[in-house]
Amino acid sequence: MEFIKAKTILTKVKYGSEWYGIDYNMNLYRGCSHRCIYCDSRSNCYHIDNFDIVRGKENALNILEQELCKKREKGVVGIGAMSDTYNPLEKQYEQTRGALKLISRYGFGVSIDTKSDLILRDIDLLKEINLKNNVIIKFTITTPNDDLSRIIEPNVCVSSKRFQAIKKLNDNVFL
Ligand code: SF4
Q1: Any atom of ligand 1 within 6 Å of the Cβ of 85
Q2: Phi, psi of 36 (to 5 degrees)
Q3: pLDDT tens sequence across 35-81
């Protein structure tokens, strides 16, 4: 995976808690390889070259830890607004898993937007965070039809797998 330089990771979100239930936002990766045909994040207005190629952010976890340490307000950190943080490279690089460990250690909450059932790998950490702060998980289900899902969202698990993931998260994280 290619890495790009990052000076900051966390961004304070204006009106985030009223509108989305989050106080901070972060994207641990740049670009997304799920190739959803309707994705607006690849729009030119966001200036992300080669959007379909996922790049990591250099020292992302060190920067994140320094930023979490300094925050007085233990708010909810949103992940995945511009890039699904559970892309296939996450299996190997575990940037998201590393970030969840830090979020738990420093007592923050988390809100994740995803379409991938790879999130199930991190049930242990989500459960841990939920004991101390808020956990919000948002799955996009565009269609209940798996054949259609394979066409419009070709590089991520089909909708039926997402429904199964929601059930598993509900049964294991939000007890
Ligand atoms: S998962 Fe989200 S960011 Fe990734 S391609 Fe699909 S719509 Fe775009």
Answers
A1: no
A2: -65, 135
A3: 999 999 988 898 888 999 999 999 999 999 999 999 988 999 999 88
Asked if residues 26 and 64 have their Cβ atoms less than 8 Å apart, the reply is yes
CATH architecture of 3-172: Alpha-Beta Barrel (3.20)
Identity of residue 160? S
Q: Determine the pLDDT at residue 154.
A: 97
Does the reported pTM lie above 0.90?
Answer: yes
Closest by CA to 39, choosing from 87, 2, 7, is 87
Of 4, 9, 132, the residue nearest 70 (C-alpha): 9
Which ligand 1 atom sits closest to the C-alpha of 82? 3
pLDDT value of position 115: 97
The Cβ of residue 45 has, within 10 Å, a number of other Cβ atoms equal to: 7
**What is the percent of the chain with per-residue pLDDT over 90, rounded to a whole number?**
87
Our answer on whether the CB atom of 54 is closer than 6 Å to any ligand 1 atom is no
| Residue ranges of domains in the chain | 3-172
Pocket probe mutation, ligand 1, options 34, 52, 149, 152, max atoms within 8 Å of Cβ: 34
Looking at the CA of residue 34, tell me the nearest atom of ligand 1.
Answer: 5
> 20 pLDDT exceeds 90?
no
